[in-house]
Design brief:
The protein is an alpha+beta fold and about 300 residues long. The protein has helices at about 10-40, 285-304; strands at about 65-75, 80, 85-90, 90-95, 100-105, 115-120, 125-130, 145-150, 155-160, 160-165, 170, 175-185, 190-195, 200-205, 215-220, 225-235, 240-245, 250, 260-265, 270, 280.
């Protein structure tokens, strides 16, 4: 029987070669893994998560505490109401809680005043209510009237040089402002008067039979030597001279005086006390002396 011998590369040798190859591959893999672990960059730690920013808290409105409200009104006696509650007549000072409040001010014949106010803690708020009259409450404008009476029947009345009738007379629709009234009666001195007519009616009573005298004149008293300054006054009680020179001043009833005399050209007024002293007065204007003398003598004639 023929025996076959194994060659140099028999099954045993091939197994050893395979084992070597496996070990070699394993060594290369281990070396590669070691190299990769040694050469790779260190791991970057993850960035810390950002903390959320806190949201600012919204301040809550102040709803506690009290403040003061001062209320006045343009019309006296107006009633003040706050939040529907009557407080009293204006002006008023009231303490209210913080926040919004409704104010109403009312007065008969006027439109209601309404306003919303906001009270702040520990503060004073002032409010002025200006009331306007209701249109239906406003009275129609009435032109002023002038009523003129006289103690002499039939006295003629003139307004601004225009004849308006005989006294007593009522002049209607007189325009407001300045007017000149003249009333005349036969046998009496004319009455003249300046009037200032406003919105109301005006009445004038003329007393012709009543003696009136109220005259005054700045004069200079001429002495035998020198002079003194003073004031000559005439009333129904008589005549008096007022001056700082006590010895020159006097007061005399008309019954004790001679008629007053005027020298117009010489600007001289002569006064004589019966059975007594004589006085000579002068003024800057001779007309003033003449008017004074005529007024005195006219009154004296009616007093007799």
């Amino acid at each position: 029987m023929e025996h076959l011998s194994a060659g140099p590369h028999g099954p045993g040798e091939r197994g050893r070669i395979g084992l070597v190859l496996v070990l070699l591959v394993a060594a290369v893999a281990v070396a590669g893994l070691a190299a990769w672990l040694f050469l790779r960059p260190p791991p970057v730690p993850p960035a810390p998560a950002a903390s959320p920013k806190p949201t600012p808290a919204t301040p809550s409105p102040v709803t506690s505490g009290t403040g003061t409200l001062e209320i006045s009104a343009s019309v006296a006696g107006s009633d003040v109401h706050v939040d529907g509650r009557r407080i009293g007549p204006a002006p008023q000072r009231v303490e209210l809680g913080v926040g919004a409040h409704k104010v109403r001010v009312e007065k008969e014949g006027f439109q209601d005043f309404e306003r919303e106010v906001h009270i702040i803690p520990d503060r004073t708020l002032t409010l002025e209510a200006r009331l306007e009259a209701r249109l239906e409450a406003r009275p129609e404008a009435v032109a002023p009237r002038l009523r003129v009476e006289a103690d002499v029947p039939g006295a003629q009345v003139f307004l601004d040089r225009r004849f308006v009738g005989e006294a007593p007379v009522t002049i209607r629709d007189v325009a407001p402002g300045h007017h000149r009234l003249n009333v005349s009666a036969e046998g009496y001195e004319m009455h003249a008067e300046d009037l200032e007519i406003v919105s109301d009616s005006h009445e004038v009573a003329v007393r012709f039979k009543e003696v009136r005298l109220d005259e005054a004149l700045e004069v200079k008293h001429k002495h035998g030597m020198g002079s003194c300054q003073g004031r000559l006054v005439a009333t129904i009680d008589g005549l008096r001279y007022e001056t700082d020179h006590d010895k020159d001043g006097f007061s005399a009833a008309f019954s004790t005086l001679e008629p007053l005399e005027v020298d117009y050209l010489a600007k001289n007024l002569r006064v004589r006390i019966r059975g007594g002293r004589k006085y000579n007065f002068t003024a800057e204007d001779a007309d003033d002396l003449l008017v004074f003398q005529q007024a005195v003598e006219a009154a004296r004639a009616r007093l007799q």
